[in-house]
C-alpha cells in the first residue's frame, strides 16, 4: 500500500462528486471504506491499494491499467467468484474481495522470491514438455501450477440467480451508448425507426463521462460544451424519442446473421438472455487504450490515460501526487490539464515525435502553467519495486534511438501512457466483416461504404470502432448511419435523404484540415471495393 | 510553414498574431486570439455577434478584426482552447488582461495573483479587479487582472499568491 495525501477529492473546479452511501468491503479480510456507486477497483485504489494481482510467470506486481474492463489486470476473487474484473463491479456492503495470485496475497507474495530461479528450473515453455510422461502426473502438476500462478481457484460460489430468455424484434439495434451510438439511435429514431440501444455500462455516454473539458468542433456538434454535459444532452434527446428503447448493463456477445445475443444484468441475482432480431445493426463499441514497451511497464502506477481519467473524473479519486505523461496527443495534453485541475502535479510530458501531436492550444494551456514538454524524448524505464517511484527518460536521435548520456530521472508516483487507442472490433470480426489493418485509423478496422455500412449488409459502424478520431466525428458518423439505416428501411422520405447528403458533406468539411488528412488517407484504404470508382 | 511553436508549446514573439493598435487598446477591451494552427474548431467564430472573427471554414485559424470587435466577451466564454485573451490599456498607464480560469480556489476581486508568461515563467504580480464567477459560465471563470501596461502581451496565466 502507498501513502497518498488524499484518496478522494473533496472538491473539484468542474465536477461535483456525488458519492453514495458509505459501505464497508473486505479486502483480503481487512475492512475498507467505500461509497456506493464506486467500482471495487476505485475503492481499493482510494484506500491505497496498488498491487491488484501478480503476473502469471514472474509474480511481478500488477496494478490496474484501463479501468474500463478491457485489460484484465485488475482481476480478483469477489464473493467467492474468481477472475472478476474489479473495475467493472460495484461495491456492496459486506463484499469479500481477495487477490487471487500470490501467497498470502498479491501485496506480499512470497513466491516472488522464486523470480530469480524460476527461469532456470522451468524455462519458458517447459510446462508443455515437462510432466508429460503420464496423464496422472500431468493432471497433478497442472493443478499445482494453476494454484501457484493463481489463475484457477475453483469457484467457491456458483451463480444462483435466475436467467430468463427474452426475444426482441426491432428495426435498428445500436450496440454501444457512447456519442457515436447515441447519435445513431437519435437519428434513426427521429425518422420513425424502432430502435434498441444497449450499453454494457450502468450509464450512457461512453468515454464522454470522464471528459470534463469543453469540446472542440463546431457549435452544431456542441463544441464549447463540456464532454460530460454532451453525454447528458444526448441522453435527454434519446429519452424524448418514444420509439427508442434504451437498455443499460446489457452486453452484446455475438452477432449472427442479423441477430444479436446479449446479456442484460437486472440485479445481483437476476439477468436476462436477449435474442435480438434487428433489420439493421450499428456497432459503436468504441476503443481501448494501447500501451507502450519500456522496462517495468507493468509496474503498478503505469496506467492508461483513460484509466486515470476514469479514476479522477468519474470517481473523484486522486491517482497520485505527481505524474509523468507519455504522449503529447490531445489525450495526453488534456489529461495533464485535468490532473492539474484535481490538484495533482505533472512532472513532464514526453513525446517521441519531433513535435507535439495534439492541438497547439491544448499544449499552450499546460505549458503556461509550467509543465515542461520534451519532444524527441522517450521513457526508458519505470523505477520502483511495488509501485512507481520514478522514471528515466532520454532524448532520441534521428533514428529514434535513445542518445546515451541524455538520460534524466523524473520523480513521480505514477505514469500515464497516452499513446493512442485501438478500435474495439471483436464483434465485427465475429460477425464476419471484412477487416483491414489501417494504421491511420488506429488498427484493425472494417471495410465500409461512405455511409459506414460494412461488408455485412445491414451492419454499420460509427465512432472510434470505425477508426480512432474524436467525439465530434463519432456524433457525425452516428448521424450518417442512423439516417441511412432509417432511409433504407423506408422511413423519413425526401427530407431524410436530404439530411443524409448534408451530413456526409459536413463530415467531409470537418475532415478537410491537416488533422483530418490522416483520417481521409486512412479511409481511402478501407473503402469497400464496390464503392471505389476507378 | 514554421512548426516552431509545436516543438515548444508556446508562441514566440514573431509567431504572435498582429497587435491591435494602441488607440484601439485604449478605447475598450479587445479580443486577442492565440490560435495559429488549423484545427477543426469554430465556437469563437460562431459565438461572435459582431462578425469580428474571420474563419473561412472550420479548419481555418480565427482572425480578429480589431475594429469590429466590441469587446463583448462572448467568444472567450466558450473557447475550449483557452486561447482568447481580452486586452486593454487604461489611461492611468496600467493594462488589463482577462483570461479563462478553471482552478480551485476560485479567484475573487481584490485577490493578488502571480503572473506567468507563455512559458510558465513568473513575470510579476497583479491584482484581480473583476471576475465572471464560475457558476455563471459552466465553471469557466473569467478573471481580469491589472498588470503593468507593457505586460499585456506577456501575461497568459495566473495563480493565487499563497
Ligand atoms: C482524454 C480524451 C480526451 C478527448 N477529447 C476529445 C475532444 O476534445 N473532442 C472530441 O471530439 N473528442 C475527444 N475525445 C474522443 C472521444 O471521447 C471519443 O472519440 C468518443 O468517445 C468515441 O465515441 P464512441 O461512441 O465511438 O465510443 P465510446 O465513447 O468509447 O463508447 C462505446 C460504448 O460502447 C460500449 N460497449 C462496448 N462494447 C459493448 C458491447 N459488446 N455491448 C454493449 N456495449 C458495449 C461501451 O461500454 C461504451 O459505453 C477524447 C478522448 C479521450 C480519451
Ligand atoms: S469579444 Fe465579442 S465582438 Fe470581440 S471577437 Fe469576441 S465575440 Fe466577437
Ligand atoms: S474557439 Fe478557441 S480553440 Fe477554437 S478556433 Fe476559436 S480560438 Fe481556437
Ligand atoms: S480490466 Fe480492470 S483495469 Fe483493465
Please summarize what this structure is:
The complex is a heterodimer of chains A (534) and B (162). Chain A is of the alpha/beta class and 534 residues long.
Q: What does this 3D model show about the protein?
A:
The complex is a heterodimer of chains A (534) and B (162). Chain A is globular. Chain A has 534 residues and is of the alpha/beta class. Chain A starts with 21 loop residues before the first strand and ends in a 9-residue tail after the last helix. Chain A has helices spanning 40-46, 115-121, 126-129, 135-149, 179-189, 227-239, 305-314, 330-341, 360-367, 426-431, 471-488, 493-510, 514-525; strands at 22-27, 30-35, 53-54, 61-62, 75-78, 81-85, 96-98, 162-175, 195-198, 244-247, 250-256, 259-265, 270-283, 287-289, 302-304, 322-326, 345-351, 373-375, 377-383, 390-395, 408-411, 414-417, 421-423, 435-438, 443-446, 459-461. Chain A has three domains: 22-149, Ubiquitin-like (UB roll) (Roll), CATH 3.10.20.440; 163-288 and 422-531, 3-Layer(bba) Sandwich (FAD/NAD(P)-binding domain), CATH 3.50.50.60; 294-419, FAD/NAD(P)-binding domain. In chain A, the strands form seven sheets. In chain A, strands 8, 9, 10, 11, 12, 13 and 26 form a seven-stranded mixed sheet that branches. Chain A has a five-stranded mixed sheet with strand order 2-1-7-5-6, with helices on one face. The model of chain A has no long low-confidence stretch (mean pLDDT 91). Chain B has one domain (4-160). With 162 residues, chain B is α+β, with helices and mostly antiparallel strands. In chain B, a hairpin with a 4-residue loop joins β4 (84-89) and β5. The mean pLDDT of chain B is 96. Chain B contains four helices and nine strands; from the N terminus they run ααβαββαββββββ. In chain B, 46% of the residues are buried. Chain B has a seven-stranded antiparallel sheet. A two-stranded antiparallel ribbon of chain B has the order 2-3. Chains A and B meet through α9 and α13 of A and α1 and α3 of B. Bound molecules: flavin-adenine dinucleotide, iron/sulfur cluster (SF4) (2 copies) and FE2/S2 (inorganic) cluster. Residues 31, 47-48, 50, 52-53, 64, 69-75 of chain B line the site of one iron/sulfur cluster (SF4).
